[in-house]
Amino acid sequence: MASPDDLKFQEFEEATDLLSSNPGASTFSISNTGASSGDVRLDLSDDEGNQQENSELLGGEKQTGGFWTFEYYQSFFNIDTVQVLDRIKGSVIPLPGRNFVRHHIRSSPDLYGPFWICVTLVFSVAIMGNLSTFLSKMGDPDYHYRPQFHRVSIAAVTVFLYAWLVPLGVWGFLTWRQSVERQISGYTFLETVCVYGYSLFIYIPTSILWTIPFNWMQWLLIVVAMVISGSVLVITFWPAVRDDTKLTAFATMAVIVSLHALLAIGFKMYFFQTATYTGSPHTAQNITPASNHTA
Questions:
Q1: Which residues contact 225 (CB under 8 A, 6 or more apart)?
Q2: Are 133 and 273 in contact (CB under 8 A)?
Q3: Nearest-angstrom CA–CA distance, 198 and 221
Q4: CA distance 269 to 235
Q5: How far apart are CA 211 and CA 166, in angstroms?
Q6: For FRET with 278, which of 57, 219, 252, 259 sits at 20 to 30 Å CA-CA?
Q7: Element housing 31 (H / E)
Q8: Other C-beta atoms within 10 Å of 220: how many?
Q9: Residue 124 in contact with residue 118, Cβ under 8 Å?
């Protein structure tokens, strides 16, 4: 018959060796509070924090910081290259009935693509504008090239004001009409900014082609760019205003397209002034017919 000492828990050498080799290993202890109560207490000191954190993640209770924190804005730039390229492709090839918000950005609207598109457009317009001016006046002996760095500032103010103030106005108007007409569906401010930012991408390759010193070619490129980018805006915002009155719907779309066209025309008139060189009076006086030099 076993003695009472044999029924007690004994220390095992394997456990002692394990703790000596890995002091940070998680352990738990079972203590018997009494024979009559039979309560068992488990000590999960190292695992309680992890289990609580995992339960919060599975339950979707992970809290985000306020708008004054860096984590709040970090989510707007959480996008990969494949998504950016897909959205750029959607802005360059607008298809009828394919809403840009619903098919491209509704899952995760971002500010990464619009920000870098605006920055690239600023430098593209300013640099190509200087190059266009140089090429158009390259044959003029009275012209002395001077880099016009102030054009970068003007382009930056114009592009970023347009990319933020116009979407703010459109979003505010749609929100107001949504409160007046309940059947009107609107977009969030972030979605509106995202649409306008990606719609400006077509002006980047167009500004490079504007260096071609032919005025008719430049205006043709403007028309093509306005049709492509304007189609993205029309296809996107028409479903949001078509349930409104006809006058309000068509007036809203006319204002959106007109402001977008005004931006492109302003680029052309200020940054890409193609001058037709006819020769200066001093040069004309120095040109003599070849027959006067013959005997």
A1: 202, 203, 206, 264
A2: yes
A3: 18
A4: 28
A5: 28
A6: 219
A7: strand 30-32
A8: 13
A9: no
This model's pTM is above 0.85:
no
> Scanning the structure block, which residue is given the tokens 């949504």?
178
For 48, the token pair is 């309680």
Q: Are 254 and 237 in contact (CB under 8 A)?
A: no
Residues 115/195, Cβ–Cβ less than 8 Å: no
